[in-house]
Write a structure and sequence with these properties.
The structure holds three protein chains of three kinds. By secondary structure, chain A is of the alpha/beta class. Chain A folds into three domains: 1-19 and 314-393, no CATH class; 43-297, Rossmann fold; 400-467, no CATH class. Helix content of chain A is 53%, strand content 11%. In chain A, strands 1-10-7-4-2-3 form a six-stranded parallel beta sheet, sandwiched between helices. In chain A, strands 8-5-6-9 form a four-stranded mixed beta sheet. In chain A, α15 packs parallel to α19 (376-389). Chain A is elongated. Chain B has 14 helices and eight strands. Chain B has two domains: 13-128, Rossmann fold (3-Layer(aba) Sandwich), CATH 3.40.50; 133-247, Rossmann fold, CATH 3.40.50.11810. Chain B is globular. Chain C is α/β, with parallel strands linked by helices. The N and C termini of chain C lie far apart (63 Å). Chain C is elongated, with a radius of gyration of 22 Å. The chains are: A alpha/beta, B alpha/beta, C alpha/beta. Chains in contact: A-B, A-C. At the A-C interface, α2, α3, α4, α8 and α10 of A face α1, α2, α6, β9 and β10 of C.
């Protein structure tokens, strides 16, 4: 996917003025957070599960090499193949080779953000293989040549009209604005594709070390058709998805469903272990797991290690007031919202993704809903520190911060500055007691007045009071 | 050995007031209201002179080194006080971040931890530490309350201001939708991303405006300046105040961003 | 030149500041893997068997599964025939699981019974099940020669026989049941909670996306 993160400011301004997008984002704000809250209310142990999820993830990371080896051993034991991919290029090549070996012309795909991360669809197309997205949201986006704006609800930026239009155009059927009919249309169109595909590619929500299984979690059942009908099933996933046992996986499934959609449980939780067995009458003949790193292993032992706990539930973005204002596309790459603001700078570089960790008020809502208690604001701040160290922050801003620091470290000078500021602003405020504009197209007065100070600083008044006592 | 020699204050709780830079410059009346409440609750209050700012602007801008220096200044300024209390969840929350700034073998690390253990936001201090709720105040009107993020999520300030407001004569509370959603201030955020900030504060004001309240209260002046600035730009009649002004019965000053009925000519001369 | 695998493991160990696990540390994680401890299981599923059945019923119904209760699994052919008649089903594709094959299917009326894997265009399918999980009203189905996975996904209506005695409390109890039954994982384990759905269009929930539009559970008391 093209990287547009450096244009975050422009993109967000456009997003704020896009009435359709704002309507769609309204659906998000009224939907997921309410559903999550209801689901959490029904599970009195939920906060305890979050603690356990955090601790278990930390245990996994501390022993990641061991669990990855176990997983590899057990996939192989069950007749599957593991492919290690250091970066996108490695992963794409491995998948292409599997497709070529099976003579594939078309591949069906379950929803996978990792496949977006490595730009798999473009790569396959360039090499003469047609990928077909089968998740309803992803399917709509593929028809529109659009890309996901959310990690579990990829088409959340669209409205019903957008779907009606594109289905009418691409399916050549009478236009309908009945969501049920639209879904039926997609169901019929994709049925043929499921059967025709030579290879099915899915992601994995978790990889279970003890059994060598991967699991996908879906509501539609598209992932199941994708991985059951073709001759070959390829799983593209990352090294941080490992869990030790089925019991450990169960803990994360409880956390995931409630944090993501607010469901008690997702409709289909499907474990795949190796290819079809000797007497089986269906299922893929080959089973491949492509394990991608793409910089994740380098996060271990750094200030960003805790990000590897992430189970991609999307609760952070569903509750984020910034995401809720500008939507996912403004972030300019695959992973939007708070988790993206921490992960993206690692994956594409802080020089390109600098806006992301800065575009947060540190309101802390993301951390308060994270099922594995990732300290997202703290890690965004760490990115700002890296930026500051490397002198990547805008010059004017850096100057302002350094000037402030200069005074804040020197109480006597600071008193003088405070006194001068309050009196000057008070004067500018005049009778109305507020300031309508400040020089240099100041960000504050662009949209709001600045209430003027009351007059003398607190410290001056207090001192005067004390001396007159 | 303590660097300061705070007065003993006798048997009273001895409190160092953390004024906060915004209150110092923009709205000293919040500082005086805080002192009044603390004294009503039986505290002896001093205002350490060496205090400046809590360091959030540099901390949240990635300037760790300057933040360490500012933190050291605050740690030294408030050394020896039994409690440190301020009218802001975010500034007091910042004091609780200080230990993260220093390596564990740095003496300032343990001093920072010790400071954090006695630093409280004012409403939380009154309720959680002093168990004080004998508010002597009257307010003719309906208020709605914005929960500022840092106070709410870092310090657990939610019921404390409401409990205290419940003791104010004639005051009614009409809660808004999404009271816990950020107002879009975010310190430097509102300057760096003014358009997004504007959307957030607009959403907040729509929610506040949908109640029957005539006054919007909160516990952090940054948020209050932001919301009041937007409300006044839009010509809203909703008044904005810090919660301590109501609790201390000190609402004679014009609300935030409201016109002065009597312009102060002395000040103009002084400036 | 080192392989991707070597580099990944090298980075991980560099970050963890250690070499491959050995000695006590290795024994500890091996033990954990073999012992597979459970995390907290929700109190809601910690119930006597009878109440677990009730919980299963209410949770499955909440997830939009349809429940038809039978005194005995021997009533299944009759119940299926009745359902087929009501829904005007002309054909039903069935798994060949023993629990289904040992029943008397001679009286299914106009509905023809086929035994094969699922195929596109199938209207209705019938399968057995391995377990019911009360916690969330979830069915657990295992793939095998007599229970092909395609039957769980391709038909518009998926009918499932579940014995009350197969109902357990939390997911962990289902894994325990699976561990007790043999030493290897089936190719596919399906945990199914209600029929297929999607909210990808304007966040409004629509039933019947790609999987079955209806999930009908025949719950037998024996």
């Amino acid at each position: 996917m093209q990287i547009n993160s450096p244009k975050f400011k422009e993109s967000s301004r456009i997003a704020l003025e896009d009435a359709n997008l704002q309507k769609a984002l309204g659906n998000l704000r009224d939907g997921f957070p309410v559903k999550r809250a209801n689901a959490v209310d029904r599970m009195p142990e939920f906060d305890k599960l979050r603690d356990e999820g955090r601790d278990l993830k930390d245990h996994i990371i501390a022993n990641l090499d061991f669990y990855l080896e176990q997983f590899e051993t057990n996939v192989t034991k069950n007749g599957g193949h593991v492919h290690w991919a250091r970066d996108s290029d490695d992963a794409n090549k491995a998948i292409l080779e599997i497709c070529r070996k099976s003579g594939a012309k078309t591949v069906t795909k379950g929803k996978s953000m990792v496949s977006e991360e490595i730009n798999l669809n473009d790569y396959l197309e360039e090499n003469g293989i047609q990928p077909v997205e089968t998740d309803l949201g992803e399917y709509i986006l593929q028809l529109r040549k659009d890309h996901p704006s959310h990690i579990i609800a990829p088409a959340i930026h669209l409205n019903l009209d957008d779907v009606s239009d594109i289905f009418h155009e691409k399916h050549g059927r009478p236009r309908t604005d009945d969501p049920a009919e639209l879904m039926q249309e997609a169901r019929e169109m994709l049925r043929k594709q499921f059967v025709a595909a030579d290879v099915g590619i899915t992601g994995a929500n978790f990889c279970v070390a003890e059994t060598g299984s991967t699991i996908i979690v879906t509501n539609e059942g598209n992932g199941d058709l994708t991985q059951t009908l073709p001759k070959v099933h390829v799983v593209i996933t990352t090294i941080d998805k490992i869990v030790p046992t089925l019991e450990d996986m169960s803990l994360f499934l409880r956390l995931l469903a409630r944090s993501a959609t607010g469901q008690e449980f997702t409709v289909y939780n499907t474990l795949s272990t190796g290819p079809r067995r000797e007497d089986d009458v269906d299922g893929p003949e080959e089973y491949h797991v492509v394990l991608l790193d793409n910089g994740r292993s380098e996060m271990i032992g750094t200030q960003f290690q805790e990000m590897l706990r992430c189970i991609r539930c999307s609760a952070c973005m569903n509750h984020c007031p910034v995401y809720g204002s500008v939507g996912g596309h403004a972030y300019g790459w695959v992973y939007p919202g708070p988790m993206g603001s921490v992960l993206t700078p690692k994956l594409i570089g802080i020089d390109k993704a600098g806006h992301l960790p800065n575009a947060s008020t540190f309101c802390g809502k993301c951390e308060s809903v994270c099922p594995v208690r990732i300290p997202l604001p703290k890690m965004m701040r760490h990115w700002r520190e890296r930026e500051f160290e490397k002198h990547l922050s805008p010059k004017g801003f850096r100057f302002g911060i350094c000037a402030w620091a200069f005074f804040a470290k020197r109480p006597a000078l600071y008193r003088w500055l405070a006194r001068a500021s309050s009196l000057t602003l008070k004067l500018i405020g005049g009778k109305k007691n507020r300031i309508r504009s400040l020089p240099l197209k100041n960000g504050w007065t662009l949209w709001r007045d600045l209430p003027a100070p009351q007059g003398r600083t607190f410290m001056d008044q207090w001192k005067k009071q004390q001396s007159s006592k | 050995m303590s660097l300061n020699t705070p007065s003993s204050g006798g048997s009273r709780h001895q409190v160092g007031l953390f004024v906060t830079c915004l209150v110092d410059i923009f709205r000293p009346s919040i500082g005086f209201a805080t002192i009044k409440l603390l004294e009503q609750a039986g505290c002896y209050v001093e205002v350490p002179e060496a205090q400046t700012c809590c360091g959030q602007p540099t901390f949240n801008s990635g300037d760790r080194k300057s933040t360490q220096d500012i933190a050291k200044n605050v740690i030294n300024a408030f050394d020896g006080y039994q409690y440190v209390v301020g009218p802001s969840g975010s500034c007091i929350g910042m004091l609780h971040h200080y230990p993260d700034l220093f390596e564990s073998d740095d003496p300032y690390h343990s001093r920072a931890k010790e400071l954090a253990s006695r630093a409280y936001e004012i409403t939380s201090f009154l309720i959680d530490v002093l168990e004080f709720d004998k508010i002597i105040a009257q307010y003719e009107g309906i208020i709605t309350y914005h929960d500022s993020c840092a106070g709410l999520r870092e310090l657990g300030v939610k019921q404390q201001p409401r409990k205290l407001l419940g003791k104010v004569n004639n005051l009614q509370i009409d809660e808004m939708e999404e009271a816990e959603t950020c107002c879009g201030f975010g310190g430097t955020f509102c300057i760096k991303y003014p358009d997004i900030s504007n959307r957030m504060v607009s959403n907040k004001n729509v929610n506040a405006g949908a109640t029957n309240a005539d006054t919007l209260l909160g516990g952090d002046l940054g948020c209050l300046l932001n919301m009041a600035g937007k409300l006044k730009r839009e010509g809203s009649k909703l008044e904005v105040r810090h919660v301590v002004e109501v609790l201390a019965n000190m609402t004679y000053e014009p609300a935030i961003g409201e016109a002065n009925l009597q312009p102060n000519f002395d000040l103009a001369k002084e400036a | 030149m080192s392989t991707s695998r070597d580099q990944i493991f090298g980075n991980i160990r560099l970050g963890l500041k250690r070499g491959p696990l050995e000695g006590e540390a290795l024994e500890k994680v091996k033990h954990r893997l073999a012992y597979h401890p459970s995390s907290t299981t929700p109190a809601r599923s910690d119930l006597p068997q009878e109440q677990q059945v009730e919980l299963f019923k209410s949770m499955a119904t909440e997830a939009a599964a349809e429940l038809i209760e039978l005194d005995s699994s021997s009533q299944l052919p009759q119940a299926v025939a009745g359902f087929a008649k009501k829904e005007s089903l002309k054909q039903l594709v069935s798994a060949t699981a023993d629990e289904l094959m040992q029943l008397d299917w001679s009286e299914t009326g106009d509905c023809k019974l086929l035994h094969r894997e699922g195929k596109p265009g199938d209207i209705a399918s019938l399968t057995g099940s391995f377990a019911g999980i009360a916690e969330t009203g979830t069915l657990m189905l295992l793939s095998g020669p007599q229970s092909p996975t395609t039957l769980n996904f391709l038909a518009d209506i998926h009918m499932v026989l579940l014995h009350e005695s197969s109902i357990v409390g939390p997911y962990e109890a289902a894994w325990q049941k699976l561990r007790e039954q043999g030493d290897s994982m089936p190719r596919t384990v399906n945990m199914i909670t209600g029929p297929s759905r999607s909210a990808d269009i304007e966040q409004k929930l629509q039933m019947g996306a790609h999987g079955p539009k209806r999930l009908v559970i025949f719950l037998a008391k024996d």
